[in-house]
């Protein structure tokens, strides 16, 4: 059993120590302090109060490679995703951004010809590849490019994930439904029509309903794949506001083609690029460094299009 830990930013794997799967906010093992100034020790139940939450590593991705059949889609991507921060994934079409996102929550399992190698570790467990997909998705919500409400009522769209995860008490369900709709600013717009078809909502409302559906199980991580690409500027502004609000309490990974959006909402930015026909991570850094002092020539070139 491990008694003392240092700050949880860099690495929560210590070889030779058997770690039990733990809940979010409990840490396994730590190799480095969070900053040069911080050498705080803490027990497994505690966070380091000297560190800023955004310095905690929530997901550690090491050498992930994704193939569809014989085609290599992304190769050797390693990066740390920080907790309660927005990480934007940008890059030209076809460089593997969506595939990368799907690799994080095992949606890649749904494609029989897809093979994923490498490791993806969440702060609450060793590796997603040892977790059941249903358990993983309890903690990791996802929002897609096009709104995809089920062809049911607004209420049933939100009840569905709750019932799937064993929540059947009508009072608890109605409280959660109202809260999820309120969290995405939709409650006042739809409270008199929750039993109408979700398909009767506008595109922007449908996307917010899908966001409410992704949030209703209170995930720790939210994956968003170009969530505003089908929306008008006003609906986009609402979603961007929600992303910033949500990132105070959850970790957000946002795939976007919109460089201005990445600059507006992200704390960290990663540029993917296809070289030798394979998607790779080119540059990753804080939003200020990425846009203010890009290091890689491809980043400089790409930012000229922004
Ligand atoms: N199910 C699949 N089967 C085979 N190849 C696929 C599959 N899904 C994606 N690909 C291929 O993987 C590559 C990367 O696609 P992906 O959608 O991940 O890129 P992207 O960067 O998100 O693109 P975009 O910005 O256009 O959405 C593409 O060449 C695509 O054809």
Uncertain runs: 1-49
Q: Average pLDDT, to the nearest integer?
A: 82
Number of domains: 2
Q: Which ligands does the model contain, each kind named once?
A: adenosine-5'-triphosphate
Helix % is 25-40%
In spatial order, strands of the major sheet run: 5-6-7-3-8-9
CATH class of the largest domain: Alpha Beta
Task: Report the major sheet.
Answer: 6 strands, mixed
CATH topology of the largest domain: Rossmann fold
**H/E series:** EEEHEHEHHHHEHEHEEHH
SS summary, helix count: 10
Number of strands: 9
Strand content: 15-25%
Overview of the structural elements:
It holds the Pfam family ABC_tran. One of its GO terms (molecular function) is ATP hydrolysis activity. This protein has 306 residues and is α/β, with parallel strands linked by helices. It folds into two domains: 54-139 and 221-230 and 251-305, P-loop containing nucleotide triphosphate hydrolases (Rossmann fold); 147-218, no CATH class. Helix content is 30%, strand content 23%. It contains ten helices and nine strands. It has helices at residues 97-104, 133-139, 154-164, 170-183, 187-190, 203-215, 233-246, 259-265, 287-292, 297-303, and strands at residues 57-68, 71-82, 86-90, 114-122, 140-143, 221-225, 251-255, 268-275, 278-286. The strands form two sheets. A six-stranded mixed β-sheet has the order 5-6-7-3-8-9, sandwiched between helices. Strands 2-1-4 form a three-stranded antiparallel β-sheet, covered by helices on one side. The chain is globular. The N and C termini lie far apart (50 Å). Adenosine-5'-triphosphate (ATP) binds at residues 68, 73, 91, 93-99, 111.
């Amino acid at each position: 059993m491990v008694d003392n830990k240092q700050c949880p930013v860099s690495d929560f794997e210590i070889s030779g120590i058997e770690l039990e799967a733990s809940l979010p906010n409990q840490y396994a093992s730590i190799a480095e302090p969070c900053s040069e100034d911080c050498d705080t020790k803490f027990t497994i139940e505690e966070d380091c109060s000297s560190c800023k939450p955004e310095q905690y590593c929530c997901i550690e991705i090491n050498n992930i490679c994704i193939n569809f059949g014989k085609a290599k889609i992304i190769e050797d991507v390693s990066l740390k995703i920080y907790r309660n921060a927005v990480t934007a994934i940008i890059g030209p079409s076809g460089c593997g951004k969506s595939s990368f996102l799907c690799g994080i929550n095992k949606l890649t399992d749904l494609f029989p010809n897809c093979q994923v190698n490498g490791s993806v570790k969440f702060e609450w467990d060793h590796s997603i590849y040892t977790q059941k997909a249903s358990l993983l998705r309890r903690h990791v919500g996802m929002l897609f490019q096009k709104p995809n409400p089920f062809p049911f009522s607004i209420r049933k769209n939100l009840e569905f994930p709750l019932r799937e995860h064993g929540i059947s008490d009508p009072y608890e369900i109605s409280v959660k439904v109202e809260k999820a709709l309120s969290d995405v600013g939709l409650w006042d717009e739809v409270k008199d029509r929750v039993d109408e078809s979700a398909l009767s909502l506008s595109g922007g409302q449908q996307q917010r309903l899908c966001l409410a559906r992704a949030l209703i199980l209170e995930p720790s991580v939210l994956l968003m794949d170009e969530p505003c690409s089908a929306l008008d500027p006003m609906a986009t502004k609402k979603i961007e506001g929600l992303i910033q609000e949500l990132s105070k309490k959850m970790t957000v990974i946002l795939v976007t083609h919109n460089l201005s959006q990445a600059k507006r909402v992200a704390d960290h930015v990663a540029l993917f690029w296809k070289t030798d026909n394979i998607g790779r991570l080119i540059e990753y850094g804080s939003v200020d460094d990425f846009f203010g002092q890009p290091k890689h020539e491809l980043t400089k070139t790409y930012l000229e299009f922004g």
